[in-house]
Amino acid sequence: xxxxxxxxxxxxxxxxxxxxxxxxxxxxxxxxxxxxxxxxxxxxxxxxxxxxxxxxxxxxxxxxxxxxxxxxxxxxxxxxxxxxxxxxxxxxxxxxxxxxxxxxxxxxxxxxxxxxxxxxxxxxxxxxxxxxxxxxxxxxxxxxxxxxxxxxxxxxxxxxxxxxxxxxxxxxxxxxxxxxxxxxxxxxxxxxxxxxxxxxxxxxxxxxxxxxxxxxxxxxxxxxxxxxxxxxxxxxxxxxxxxxxxxxxxxxxxxx
Amino acid sequence: xxxxxxxxxxxxxxxxxxxxxxxxxxxxxxxxxxxxxxxxxxxxxxxxxxxxxxxxxxxxxxxxxxxxxxxxxxxxxxxxxxxxxxxxxxxxxxxxxxxxxxxxxxxxxxxxxxxxxxxxxxxxxxxxxxxxxxxxxxxxxxxxxxxxxxxxxxxxxxxxxxxxxxxxxxxxxxxxxxxxxxxxxxxxxxxxxxxxxxxxxxxxxxxxxxxxxxxxxxxxxxxxxxxxxxxxxxxxxxxxxxxxxxxxxxxxxxxx
DNA sequence: GGTTTCATTTGATTAAGATCAATGAATTTG
DNA sequence: CAAATTCATTGATCTTAATCAAATGAAACC
Lengths: 256, 256
Fold this sequence. Notes:
Chain A has helices at 23-28, 35-44, 125-134, 136-162, 165-182, 196-203, 207-219, 235-242; strands spanning 46-47, 56-58, 66-72, 75-80, 86-92, 97-98, 111-114, 119-124, 189-191, 223-226, 229-232.
């Protein structure tokens, strides 16, 4: 996954800010943040050396200082449960923010770990808040991003709550595909940077089940998969699979 | 569930604002919002006639204008999926905010429906944002609340993702218990305002399974249940059940 | 008050996915 | 490069919870 070219965005030419190349930029700019504000935002952002696979962005209990925007690569977040086990809570792709769940407690409830070589921008939260007071659009955008995150979590809950193993994996793949598409990557063909184990853990399935599903999906002509590399051949049919398999819950619409 | 008495809060006496009696108040006040600001906040809040069981606070697709704070009663949120089915995404108790997931899209992705007679405060979001610009503590508190919501969703995801039916129900009961406790209600004894069907739907289980589990929990001496009324007799043991039942995922801690 | 309707409980059977066990491929390490 | 280790796949069996079916209980309606 290389950096995406910026599609139609208003006059970037005068902007020397490095944010220009950040996918997050596309999320901010359309919402009333102009070039001047953008530069100001850019000034508070810290760039860091890229993380290598397996390195931590933060660990549970670390005090919350910054949000992180993924520029390239990918990250998994997970919470260790009692005695060594862990539960993967999310995979984060370029252009996404990590660390939002730490704001309440002022310390990170989960760990964030690079799944591959990953570069991130560090956004010191205090400075972001100060800036937010000056730039109303930014404040609003931050709330919006968090709201979006909530929405995505809800969708995942729906997935985990109800559906068959098949639906879960189909929905995960389509979800990743869609997120990549939104950022200008190919929605059809991509590399799964996470292990089968991570996927299984995330979806609440056994590794073996995930493996079998990939095999089945492939022989059904839905996709091809080789190791990490996936090509979605029939997204339509995958979308059908991703839906509640049959009669889920029978609460038809009733009146107030 | 009747209204809770306010526990130790700083000099309320001079405060004529109705927010004084709202559980949400306890969430706002500790975080740097003083009495004056509070009055201002109070002025933008609209009170509405109580909802009866089954009435909607909003429906999917309704345009997003306001957040709602539950004052008493309870609400379920759910998203209708294709063709009549629904997925319950949350139960909301007094003192909790509903509607945060609508900020991104400016329209509600889910429905909110009263599970019993419920009174809410309507907080027009535009006005709240304006006020947020003036009162830095408020802005911060709003982010904090959203972050908290994210955290709770993550915890639920962990629940749904992985665990046995037993763990799920135990965790739900303990979760409700804890939320009630935080608001000054009894954590030991309460009424489940939602139907078994809602519980099953929320937890991703069949109704029959939920019913059997209640029966089993009761005969194991963990709780007593009669219709809606639940008494948690052994929260310790419930907490053990709520944990990942056995070897979940075997990813031991490895080095960076 | 009695009937209809809906919610809940209980039992019997079935199916989906977990677990156990083993092998094969790929990456890392010395 | 070979050995070691991790990761992925495949097969066989077992467990859990879903599904099917029915009965009972509670509440709403006329």
